[in-house]
Every structure is written in C-alpha cells, then in structure tokens.
Specification:
Distance between the termini of chain A: 51 Å
CATH superfamily of chain A: MetI-like
Mean pLDDT of chain B: 88
Largest interface: A-B, 19 and 24 residues
Low-confidence stretches of chain B: none
Helix content of chain A: over 70%
Largest sheet of chain A: none
Shape of chain B: elongated
Strand content of chain A: under 5%
Radius of gyration of chain A: 20 Å
Largest sheet of chain B: 6 strands, mixed
Number of helices of chain A: 12
Number of domains of chain A: 1
Number of helices of chain B: 9
Number of strands of chain B: 21
Strand content of chain B: 35-45%
Low-confidence stretches of chain A: none
Order of helices and strands of chain A: HHHHHHHHHHHH
Oligomer: heterodimer
CATH architecture of chain A: Orthogonal Bundle
Helix content of chain B: 10-25%
Shape of chain A: globular
Mean pLDDT of chain A: 90
CATH class of chain A: Mainly Alpha
Structural class of chain B: alpha+beta
Chain lengths: 227, 359
C-alpha cells in the first residue's frame, strides 16, 4: 500500500477533532487567562494567592484525578450539569466536554506565564499613560497588553500544545466515543490497545508533524519584531 | 501655584520605618528638591501625581484640590493634568516617537499627530518622528519624554532626576531646554535631583530633603554656600567639617572662639545652646601663605605643616596639619610659584564669616 493510499484510508476524524478542540480551548484559555493574570498581577484582591493556587492545581494533579473532579462537578446529576441541561447543553461525554477538559488543562500555564509577563512590565509605562489622561481600559489595551505581547504569544503556544496533548482529563470527561469525542490522543491509545499498530503509528506521525509545524510557525512569528 | 502638605509612613523590607512629612508651596518657576537618595524626594512627586496615596494631607494646584484626606478627595491620575518625567523616562517602546508624543493629546488621531509634530519641531527633533524609541539616544529620548509631558498642556511639571543618565554636554543642553520650557510655560516645575550643579543651574528655589523632611530652603546659592546643616554641608561638598568646643564668647566683637582639638579659631557669633558645635569651612575659602601674615582683617591665622598635596580635577588640595587637618584649594600655578612641598611650614588665613556653624 502506498503512502498516498494509506493516507486516504486514514480516519482523519480524531486529528481534526483534536485540532478543533485545541484551537477553541486555547482561545477560551487565552481570554480567561489574560483576564485572571491581569487581576492577579495588578489588583490587590483578597485571597489572591489562593486563587492562584486553585488555578495552578490542574498542573500538579494527575489528569485522571482532575477528570474525576470535573465529572462529578459537571455530570447531569450535578447542579451545574442540570442547569446547562435545561438549555440542552451536555457537559459530559460530548465535544463540549472535550473542550472543557482541554481548557482546564491549558489554563494554568496560560495564567502563570501571562501573569509573569504582566509583572515584568515597568509600572512607570502605565503610570505615564494614566498621567497622560488615559483610562484604565485604554492603559490595558494600549500599554499593558502590547508590552506583554511576546509573553502572551509564548504562553498561547504552550497552552495550545497542552490542549492538543491532553489525554487523561479528556478520556474521563469526554470519554472515548469514536466519531464523536475520540480525540487523536485517545484514538492512539485505543488503536494500540486493539492491536491496530499501523494506525497508531500513523496518527502519532501526523500529530507530531502538525505539532512541530505549529511550533515552527509561531516561533517564526514571534521572532519577528513585535514592537 | 502648587500647595502641598503630605505625610505618609512606609514600612517595608528596604525601609524598616520611613516617615515622609513635608509641606511647601511652589510658584510658577523651577523648585528643586535636593537631597540624598532615599530622603523622600521622588516619593513626594509620586504623592503629588497620585501614583501613591498619602496617609494624610492635601495637594492643591491653582486652588483646585487634587487630594485632600480630610474631605476624602482623591482625583484619579488621568484627571490631574500633571506632566511627569520619570527617571526611566518611560518612552513607550512599542510605538514610534510621534505616537508617543501624540499619546496624551485629545482629539482624532490626525489632529493629535499634527499637534505632536509641532511639539517635535519645538524640541528640534522632527526628524525622529517615525523612529523607533529603541533606536534613539538618551538625550533624544529625554526630549521626546519632555515633549510628551508638555503636549497635554499640564498645570504642573514633575521631573524626577531626568538628567541623571546623561553626559555633561547633553545635560547642559537639556538644562537650557528646561529653562526655556520654564520661561514659556509659566507653571510650577518641581525638579528632583541629588546633583548640586543641576540644582544651582536650574533652581530659583531649592528645598533640601533629609530623611523625609525638609531641612533647608532658599535660593540654591545661599543654601549651598552658607550651609546651616551637616547634610547640606556634606551634600554640597564642603571639604572641612570639624567638631569644636566653644571656649569664649564675645558678642561685643561679634565672634566666639572654638577649640578644634589642637587649634583655636574665631567664628561668627551665634547664640548656641550647646558648647559642642560643628563647623564647616570650604577649602576654597581658606588662604595659604608661606610667610606669617600680619595686618589683615581675617581673624584666624593658623600655623601648620603641609602634610600632603593632592590633585583634585583642575585644582590642587593642600592638606595642612594645624592640630587638625585642613583641606585648602589652591591652583597648580600658586603651588608652583610658592614652591610648596610637603613638610613646609605654612599659615592658613580664614575669615570668621567663612566658618559656618551647622545645626
């Protein structure tokens, strides 16, 4: 069988799902992460370090443990699950679940890295902008965010990699439903378990090549002058 | 007119306890805040601008209250219309020079840029308009920051050691520029520095800071040339500072005699509460003679031995032991002509009024 033929026969669904989930999860983690990081870096809120610890937890907890917590928290029997169910949204064993899993998995890195790059900014830039008549909103968009751009971009790449690579949380929360919630990472595991070694290898190669490509492109982008 | 009364206590790792407690008024013109680092000069600017909040006090500009702890007034920084030059300058690195200057100018992007262009022209840096701030020199950055601060038409200009990172020539040019700004703007300018030369070159009035308090004020030349406190004397580089004991007081003659471990000098009379006084004498105020002087008005002629000769930039310092060591500034030419050598016996001539009693 030639390479072209075998590529045609490949079930691309897990690869496509993985990238879709990772892209959406990264986008959500970016927005939420930047907001939380800004609060932690710039505001004196009560229980700040507690919030930081809670957000960092997914970084240290075994993914299956994290997945278990989320399953309990979001299942249809839980208050949160019931609430979303009234809108017809199921938070477990669906693509939504896979996205939630990947987001939770990617968020801690995002918050940590973006908070650090916010904290690296010399505060006199922001003070100058305020004294030049800028509102806090303008200071954020015109000064803080552009000056942290490089760090935020780096954090986004890392978050994407983590979202793409999640296995434990995804399999706990979204399950392993081929054609519905089976992401590439899960499909590889599944293929190895059922003795489809060639398929596993193919998925591994595809995911590796695409990941390297993404990393390369972003590195290329970020090495260009950002300001 | 700026009127302030500020107090704030700090306690952190760097400063176990530091209390800032100052009050002054500043008219249009340059007021210099002078003092050692850590004495609260920059903090004063931050409290005026609203970067930090005073524990107690008031800040008024042209009669308008920016901060008043008693009436719970604390206007946000963006409404204060204060021009502020940070030591780091804080020229935004991610936008070009003209957009930096346009940043605070109200109106559409085009009008703001147009006005910014006029400011650049005023500072002679039009050719830098589209340059990246990382590619311009320190002196140019300085002008950009100054233009940006003035472009908002501020009611008050705060300059925090803006020249400390520059070489002497650039410094001189910028001092000229700040003077020009002063002449055309007619607003109070508060200038923080620990450099006496800058204080003298710029200030119409100087306030000397020490440990969070103002310990002297007046015209720079008066404050520095007739130091009344140890801090001012040592900051302004007075070379001879001695501890003495008052042994005789002659209010009738306008003098009193002090014993300086080994020699006695007459200083101008001043009612003193304590017997022990600190006396400051500038090395440049002392005359040196190789023969015993007679018939002169100066009250003090001290005999001593020339102990050492040191070169200090363009001058020579003779160190003369008269029981205590005096430092005397002479020109290299005088040194040659007098044929001064270590070991010579010399006489020092000091006017009583060149001896400053320190508080």
């Amino acid at each position: 069988m030639s390479l072209a033929e075998s590529l045609q026969q490949v079930d691309w669904f897990p690869v496509r799902l993985s990238f879709e989930v990772a892209i959406i999860a990264t986008a959500i983690a970016l927005v939420i992460g930047v907001a939380i990081a800004w609060l932690l870096a710039r505001k004196n809120i009560i229980g700040k370090e507690g919030i930081d610890a809670l957000i960092t937890l997914p970084l240290v907890l075994p993914p299956t443990v994290l997945g278990y917590y989320l399953l309990v928290l979001l299942s249809q029997r839980s208050p949160l699950g019931r609430f979303f169910d009234t809108f017809g949204i199921r938070l477990t064993f669906t693509v939504t679940a896979a996205i939630i899993a990947a987001t939770i998995h990617a968020l801690p890195l995002m918050v940590k890295a973006v908070r650090a790059s916010f904290e690296d900014i010399d505060r006199t830039f922001e003070h100058s902008a305020r004294l030049l008549g800028s509102s806090e909103w303008r200071v954020f968009w015109r000064i803080t965010l552009p000056l942290a751009k490089r760090g935020i971009l780096a954090a986004t790449v890392l978050a994407f990699a983590r979202a793409l690579g999640d296995f434990g949380v995804t399999i706990m929360l979204a399950g392993n439903i081929p054609g519905r919630t089976q992401t590439a990472a899960v499909a590889i595991y599944d293929a190895v378990q059922s003795g489809r070694d060639n398929y596993a290898l193919l998925l591994v190669v595809i995911i590796s090549v695409l990941s390297v490509l993404v990393l390369y492109t972003t590195n290329k982008l970020s090495s260009r002058r950002l300001y | 007119m700026l009127e302030i009364e500020l107090s704030k206590s700090f306690s952190n790792r760097d400063n176990p306890e530091f209390n800032l407690d100052v009050a002054f008024n500043a008219r249009p013109g340059i007021t210099v805040l002078f003092g050692p680092s850590g004495s609260g000069k920059s903090t004063t600017l931050q409290l005026i601008a609203g970067i930090a909040t005073p524990d107690k006090g008031r800040v008024l500009v042209n009669g308008q209250t920016l901060f008043d702890s008693a009436n719970r007034v604390n206007r946000p920084m963006r409404e204060r219309r204060i021009g502020y030059l940070f030591q780091q300058l804080a020229v935004f690195p991610h936008i070009d020079v003209i957009d930096n200057v346009a940043f605070g100018i109200a109106g559409s992007k085009n009008t703001a840029r147009k006005k910014a262009g006029e400011w650049l022209e005023r500072f002679g840096i039009s050719e830098l308009a589209h340059r990246d701030p990382s590619s311009i020199s320190g002196g140019e950055k300085q002008r950009v920051a100054l233009a940006r601060a003035l472009a908002i038409n501020p009611r008050l200009l705060l300059l925090d050691e803006p020249l400390s990172a520059l070489d002497a020539t650039t410094k001189r040019k910028l001092i000229e520029e700040i003077r020009r700004v002063d002449e055309s703007s007619q607003i109070p300018i508060i200038y923080v520095t620990h450099d006496q030369g800058e204080a003298i070159a710029l200030g119409e009035s100087v306030l000397v800071y020490e440990r969070g308090r103002i310990i002297a004020d007046g015209q720079p030349l008066d404050v520095f040339s007739q130091p009344k406190s140890e801090t001012v004397a040592s900051l302004s580089g007075v070379e001879n500072i001695f501890t003495g004991r008052i042994v005789e007081q002659h209010p009738d003659r306008g003098t009193m005699t002090c014993e300086l471990g080994g020699c006695r000098i007459d200083v101008g009379f001043a009612p003193a509460q304590e017997n022990i006084v600190r006396i400051a004498i500038r090395a440049g105020d002392i005359l040196l003679s190789t023969i015993e002087p007679k018939g002169i008005s100066a009250r003090n002629t001290l005999e001593g031995k020339l102990r050492a000769i040191e070169s200090v930039s363009h001058d020579v310092h003779a160190i003369v032991d008269c029981g205590v060591d005096f430092r005397v500034t002479i020109t290299p030419h005088a040194q040659q002509e007098l044929g001064l050598e270590v070991g010579n016996t010399v006489w020092l001539i000091i006017k009583s009024h060149s001896c400053y009693l320190l508080r």
